[in-house]
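Open question from group meeting: does this chain pack into something compact, or does most of it stay loose? Before anyone orders reagents, we agreed to write out a predicted structure and look at it together. Recording both the input and the output here so the notebook holds the full record.
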Amino acid sequence: MNIGANNAVRGRPRPAVEQSEFSFTDHDYRRIAAMIRADAGIDLREEKSALVYSRLVKRLRALHLKSFEDYCDLVEANAGCDERVEMLSALTTNVTNFFRERHHFEHLRQQVLPPLIASARAGDKLRIWSAGCSTGQEPYSIALSLLSLEPQAHRLDVKILATDIDPRVVEAGRAGVYPEAALVEVPPGLRQRYFARGAGAERQSWSVADEMRALVSFRVLNLNADWPMQGQFAVIFCRNVVIYFDEQVQRSLWSKFATKLAPGGWLYIGHSERVSGPASDRLRVAGTTTYQLGSSRRA
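Structure tokens returned:
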């Protein structure tokens, strides 16, 4: 039995982090970790206690609470459902930028999109999913890739579904307004054509053009809940998301993604992720963190 366990037995919970402003014990941390796992499937390991404290301490100040025990009591109660959403938003990581991991977009534009666009021009539908879209840079980068090949893509039966568990980042993506620094990786020609600079005090911000808005639909979606989408996707981006789940959840998600891909469909994942479990029989490696759906090797 470790020291922390001995302290808990004696009624003196060991601090999860050494902080003087708010009491934050191992028990508090386990309560928060259990809620995040239940709500989002995210596996919060013990070494993340300092991160949890630093991200939630602002919420305690805003709510005028005295301890993390009080905070846990609040978010576990029915009356704290809104704050539970705030907690999830604070603890989920939303690092993104336009054309992040550019090799994926080069592969998309050069190898994947040309035949899909040709089929769309002939009247077929094209569906792409950005799962874990954060504040929208990824789905808008997909839209820019489409528009660079087919400027009339928004007039075809082409749609990009952009989903995230965090309602705040979904709203930010839907708003489609970004500071100038966020557009540094957008080619100048695409920036001039598909973004509008703000006026007056907003001159340092850029808004996405109507052609991009027409292509992208934003929705709140928990990947560990039921997926309401009925159809399949030609392309799925789910990058740097699954890594936050434990192995069992990861294997389940890879299998679910495989069922949502159309025959020959493409899956792009994060640089630290690898497809595992039964899905690895159907999703063949087709490039750096790039997979294509094929028939099962067991067949």
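Observations to bring back to the group:
The two ends are 49 Å apart (CA to CA).
The first strand starts at residue 126 and ends at 131.
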